[in-house]
Amino acid sequence: MYLIVIVILLVPNMLQFYNVFAATPIFGPSRTVDIPNEVVSFPVETNIDKNYISYLNKNKYVNVDLYKYKANNTSSFDNLPVDILSAIYFSDGKTLNATIWLSDPIYGERHNYYVHSNLIFSMGIFSEGQEPTHVINIYPNEDGTWTKIVQEYEPVIYFAQLPLERIPTQSNRIIESIHNYTGFYEDHQRYIDLSVDLDNLGSPDSYWVGFNVYAIDENSFLLNDNVLMEHAPPKKRIMVPNWPNNIHIRAGGETTLAEMSINSTDLNVPETFKFTDANKTDGVEVQFQPSEVKVPVTGITKIKLVIKAEKDEYIGNPTFTNQTIAIQGKTIAGAIGPKFYWILPNLEIKPPLRFEEKVGDILRNSVITYIIPVVVTSVFIIWLSRYISKKRDPYWIRVKDMLTVDASVIAGVLIFLTIGASEVFSGEAIQQVGILTASIVFPFAIAAIITIIKGHVEIFGTKLMIAGFVYLMTSVVLVAFIQK
Questions:
Q1: Residue 112 covered by a domain
Q2: Pair 432, 299 in one domain
Q3: Could you report the per-residue pLDDT of 38-73, keeping only the tens digit for each?
Q4: Highest mean pLDDT among 61-75, 287-301, 313-327, 456-470
Q5: Taking a C-beta distance cutoff of 8 angstroms, is the pair 87, 66 a contact?
Q6: What is the pLDDT of residues 391-437, one digit of tens each?
Q7: How far out from the chain centre does Cα 108 lie?
Q8: Closest residue by Cα to residue 326 from 283, 282, 288
């Protein structure tokens, strides 16, 4: 007896528990927008701009956006509400609420014309693999009413196992039909309510939603407009740039920065994104290499950033600017998504390099810095040697004087290396200046050693000391250029 009572008490709670977890996900409003100038969702010929009428006659199909913006012709649907602007959808877990927003209102007085044109407002439901599972259609009837039907498509998962010649046409069945359907639009308004009970769709956990409008014009062309499919519940669709740190360039030059990364999280599908500079008039050109990259649903994509600044635009003090980058995605199927924008922050544009700064840049980044003093000194000594005759008395310079000069130069160089260089130079310049100034010591040191060994001043020692002074002068000039 007690067991029966317990079961009676528990069963309702168990059913309630089951119903809670069986409900489809709840999510807030999500908008999908038609891009009239750019979306081409139906296969088109490459010469469509050159021979559009021939294309229409061949295919008997008119994409509303193509007809409107490629052929500049709206006469076929002046009185038909077939141009979609956007669609909004959300779910409370029981009903998928969906609304199509049109560019033209719906007029009750044109009902018969809508019937004659076979006007259909449609919402498609697709599996995770984007196979059609259901379709919700609303269309006008000759008696002045409207009908809403919900159709279920035959699963196609087993089609892949069949030989090509045995694959049947996907069939469907009507699971709900509502005649004299009302309340889905208001006269002279531009929206259509395509909401559907999720129980009729099998209460899916996740799915794709697509929106279409169809009609047939007076020339028997099929008119169609649609928007890109969106996921339900909506995906996060996060794509964040990881900009390089401390971005700075010189006006009049080009800077190729290190690789930057693009972090993508939960996109709808893998997409190819094109990056362009959104401002063509500010004297700064921002490029990406490559300009188009395929970004995964979730992952990291590497790309290089190249920035150019016009010389005449940025003469004077350093300028800090934010650059706007326009991004547009293209799906695997070729459909183009809406543009969005990134801001490249705190780009520092320094004034153009002066002559001495350009020379310094060359010296800092080349081994020529070490070659110049040797070449200059060698040329000077060869030219000077003819004036230092072997017959001249070498003793006109005293040993004490020679050693004093050599010791003074060596001491000065060592003091500069240990104290002065670190105060004036930084980074790789310290190493360059250190090597350059340390090498000054050699001719003076060798001259002093020869003088001490011989006990008197040799012609060769004199030449070495003179070479040391030439090397010293040349190095001082180079050091001045190396300093930033």
A1: yes
A2: no
A3: 444 334 343 444 444 555 556 666 778 777 766 666
A4: 287-301
A5: no
A6: 455 555 666 666 676 677 767 666 665 555 555 555 566 666 767 67
A7: 47
A8: 288
**Hey, how many other C-beta atoms are within 10 angstroms of the C-beta on 138?**
21
Residues 153 and 120 in one domain: yes
Instruction: Identify whether 14 is part of a domain.
Output: no
Write out the residue range of the structural domain in which residue 33 sits. 24-232
- For residue 79, which of 118, 115, 106 has the smallest C-alpha distance? 106
Contact 409, 468 (CB under 8 A): yes
- Sign of the Cα torsion 25, 30, 35, 38 reads negative
Domain boundary among 175, 207, 232: 232
Calculate the alpha carbon distances from 238 to 91, 130, 227, 287, 343 in Å.
22, 21, 20, 22, 15
Number of structural domains in the chain:
3
Strand partners, 27: 91
> CB-based burial of residue 270 (10 Å sphere; 0-12 exposed, 13-18 middle, 19+ buried)?
middle
> Is residue 409 included in any domain, yes or no?
yes
Q: How far is 135 from 127, CA to CA, in rounded Å?
A: 12
CB neighbour list of residue 300: distance below 8 Å, 6 or more residues apart: 261, 262, 263, 264
